[in-house]
């Protein structure tokens, strides 16, 4: 019977296999400059939509050590999946809504199950600059205002299902206006007041005065993401913080 259950889960996983969209990469005028205003982002693939509750439930049934109540406190705070009815029941959340209240460690484990990893900040930022028609919409004040409006409104819980808004030019959904997202190198998002003070690790430290060293200072939507991620620990969970995964281009 157990074998049949695993087979069924595998079939479900196959049916709902995530789409990874090819991203050609290129030069990115980043909000986190290191050596110069731009960084070069290599080609990669990005999950077209955030991991949702249904995806994550399949993962939990295959890897029960990540279920609420079984996960070690080293890997997740007490808020881990706190909105779920039980360890294997995501109600009252929508099946196709992004899974949130996930720690960085759990997000990493999930991505590994898809032979992937969390996107780096630069990979995420590269795709997040696009809208449905343009690879870089950041100079459009209407685009910025639309995104900032989401930040100004209280989050509606349970979250809406993903893919309800148009995909961006890469075919990727919900980079904005639905959730915050973990990135692989979240703990390196620090900015010093002097960008020359990066040392060998090129760490960027974020604080009020230090924000003056950030690039693209008018792009508050991106800067707010950096501020949130820089304030987190890997075990932390947030009601509107989810994730998606990335793969190398092969």
UniProtKB/TrEMBL annotation:
Signal peptide per UniProt? 1-17
| Annotated ranges, domain Sulfatase-modifying factor enzyme-like | 37-247
Q: Does the record bear Cell wall biogenesis/degradation in its keywords? A: no
Keyword entries, A-Z: Signal
Q: Name one Pfam family in it.
A: FGE-sulfatase
Which one of the record's GO molecular function terms can you name? formylglycine-generating oxidase activity
Protein name as it appears in the record: Formylglycine-generating enzyme family protein
């Amino acid at each position: 019977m157990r074998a049949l259950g695993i087979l069924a889960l595998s079939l479900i996983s196959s049916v709902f296999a995530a789409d990874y969209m090819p991203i050609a990469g290129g030069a990115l005028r980043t909000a986190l400059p290191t050596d110069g205003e731009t960084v070069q982002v290599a080609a990669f693939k990005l999950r077209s939509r955030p991991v949702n509750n249904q995806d994550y439930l399949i993962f939990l049934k295959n890897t029960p050590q990540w279920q609420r109540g079984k996960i070690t406190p080293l890997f997740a705070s007490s808020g881990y999946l706190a909105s779920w009815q039980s360890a294997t029941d995501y109600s009252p959340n929508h099946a196709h809504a992004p899974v949130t209240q996930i720690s960085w460690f759990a997000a990493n484990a999930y991505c590994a199950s898809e032979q992937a990893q969390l996107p780096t900040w630069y990979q995420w930022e590269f795709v997040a600059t696009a809208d449905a028609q343009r690879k870089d919409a950041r100079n459009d004040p209407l685009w910025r205002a639309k995104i900032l409006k989401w930040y100004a409104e209280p989050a509606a819980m349970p979250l809406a299902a993903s893919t309800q808004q148009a995909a961006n030019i890469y075919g990727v959904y919900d980079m904005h206006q639905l959730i915050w997202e973990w990135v692989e190198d979240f703990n390196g998002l620090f900015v010093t007041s002097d960008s020359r003070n990066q040392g060998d690790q090129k760490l960027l430290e974020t604080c009020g005065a230090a924000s003056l060293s950030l690039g693209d200072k008018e792009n508050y939507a991106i800067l707010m993401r950096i501020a949130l991620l820089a304030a987190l620990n890997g075990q932390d969970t947030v009601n509107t913080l989810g994730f998606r995964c990335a793969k190398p281009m092969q």
